[in-house]
Amino acid sequence: MPVYIRKNVNFTPPSLDKIPLEDEDDYITDPDQLKDPLPQPYRMIDKVLGQLVEDVWNIVESRENERLEESRKVRPPRHENTKSLEYLRKCGCMTDSGDGLYMFIGHSKGIIVIDANTQEKVTLWEEDRVDLQYIRAHIIAPNVYLLVSIDDMGFSRLHAFSGDKLYLLKHLNEHQEGTDKMIISKCKASKEGDYLGVVFENPESRDIWLEIHKLPRENWVTELDNIKAKLQKKEEPKQEVKEVKEEESTETAEPAEGTDGEKSESQSQIQQTQSNEDTAGVKFSQPSLVFKLKPPPQVSGNLASSVYSTCQKVDTGEVIGTGQNHVLSTTQIELRKEVFDHLHENLLEYASKDDTVDNIQDVNFHFLNAGKMIPLGLENPANLTIPTTVAVWWKDNETKPDMVWPFTAKITSSAVSDETSLMIIGLVDGNIVLWDRYLGIQRGVINISDNSCIEKLLFLDPSICPQEMTEYPPYSTRTTSYLLVQCRNGAMYAVLMGAGGTQAEPICLSPQIEESGEIFSKVETIRGLPDLILTVLQNGNVQIRDVLQGKVLCEMKVPDTHEIMSPWDPVVAIGNTGQTLYLRVIEREPAETDETTTDASTPQGTVLVYPLNTFNTLETFFNRKRDSIPLSVHTTVDKRVDALMKERIAMQALRKDRMQERWNCFKEEIWTILQYKEQAARKAEERDVYSPGSLGWTPLFK
């Protein structure tokens, strides 16, 4: 069969653009399309079940990953308690005496004083319906302690402990008939008990103010000595009669078995009733009010009647003020608000709706010694340890202060060193500002976190930080130390505060915590062990950490039948100069409760005692000796002159060698100078001397 083929015709394949695309619904490309789709409502049920299976699988996978991460963690050793103080079942607060001799326990009926070494009860003060929630101790004289306490009803009291007895000095806000009830939300004394700051609140009018009182510390010490002398005279004949009766009773009667504990308890009760009777009618000197501070009012319009009176009230602008004295009237402020609302009407729905201002504000204050920022008291060297000023910060600044410190953001925390020479302020934007109050200069500003505010600040002992040695001057100028900074997101940092300022990069001790149970609820330094800090987590773990590395050294093991009471605000303290830890725990509630057990009383608690000095992981820290280094250095003019003269005398032996070396250099320098002179003279002689005849005739010379 003949076939006709055209000549000069090339075959061209079809264009790729014209190839039809594969159908997405084609069952060949997707094997799942082999089955017909389910009708409604089964299709929706299938989707719900599929989503449920995926969610469950994600949960199982996340839990499995958490188990793996938890199993890979290196767990710190856990130590058990060696003693349980059952008589402190209703303990609400506790504090150390400061010298490591006593522990002051606040409970539901008063105050109990125990020996920090033996945990034996020394004395107690009891009163009905007094459940203490706050207690602090200050040493005002040798073996004399001032106790500041606040109960759950907002009543504050001042006690003195001396001679193994407690004395009620002052009831700060005792309610009287016909007057409004005033509660105290914060009460803090200076380090040596010279002044007392009290924050009062009126629940009815919602007013709040701060009062500073001068405490008659020296008068109290004198009065306590007189009381102890009188009591000692009364107890001498009673003691003789008691000894005679005890000798007669031991000869005639035999001791009964199992009654030692009852006798000791009865004896302590008898001693307590006797001490209460002896100190019941004693009157002590009363504190004196220094001044009273109220919160700053909101910025409002100027109510002056004329322009002249308005200008008289306006600040000159030479110093930074509080913003209360201005020339803006109330009408002008209202008009500006209306204009702002009109221009940003579309954005006002995203603003906060609550415009009400709560009058109850948190008041923070620190007692400060004399410094060059406010030099009151520097003229008398004997008053350098006595507070002369008070630093206060509210939500805004105080109305009429002696000095105003401006900051770029709101203040969230603050701390003062023991001698009040250094002050650190934490801001809401994650920055910290360090001020040297004694020199009156700012040491530095450093950014800690960009996404969290500063929650707590602590000054660490400078003995744990290597000190910078300077060649000159020969006397010390500043001390190098660390600052412990805690952020609200759970991160913890250590900032080096050197002689030249603060370090650029803070040291991260604990990263940001995502789980709420791992966030720190309490962070405190340990007295006597500057290398360690005590941390309590919100999940109930009580840990001892290395302050410079952030490593968990050990944990306190709580019995399975108990748990920590309120882990977000735990009752824990360290006494006996860091050798003993006291922890308040309560019984666990049963998992299954019947109707018969619903009316049961609240779970009973106890105080567990942990001897830290017996833990193997802390042995190296107890054996490590640290020399005490003051955080602030004050070198007087006499000390500076003495140091310079000593350096001059020490360098006197080297002066002869330096003088001989210098004379040898003089010879070389003189010879060099003479050579330069001869060379200059030789060049001057060889130089040609020009005269008018030697220059030749030019048109310029006529």
Structure description:
The chain is an alpha+beta fold. The chain has a domain at 29-73. Helices cover 23% and strands 28% of the residues. The chain has a five-stranded mixed beta sheet with strand order 1-29-28-27-26, with no helix packed on it. Strands 2, 30, 31, 32 and 33 form a five-stranded antiparallel beta sheet that branches. Strands 21, 22, 23, 24 and 25 form a five-stranded antiparallel beta sheet that branches. This is WD repeat-containing protein 93. Residues 232-247 have a biased composition (Basic and acidic residues).
**Mean model confidence by pLDDT:** 78
Beta-strand percent range: 25-35%
Oligomer status: single chain
The share of residues in helices is: 10-25%
**What is the radius of gyration computed over CA atoms, rounded to a whole number of angstroms?**
40 Å
Number of strands: 33
Give the helix/strand class.
Answer: alpha+beta
Distance between the termini: 128 Å
SS summary, helix count: 8
User: What is the overall shape?
Assistant: extended
In the sheet with the most strands, the strands line up as 1-29-28-27-26
Q: Runs with pLDDT <50, length 5+?
A: 253-266, 355-360, 593-600
Largest sheet: 5 strands, mixed
Organism: Mytilus coruscus (Sea mussel)
Biased composition (Low complexity): 266-275
GO biological process, one term: electron transport chain
InterPro entries: NADH_UbQ_FeS_4_mit-like, Quinoprotein_ADH-like_sf, WDR93_beta-prop
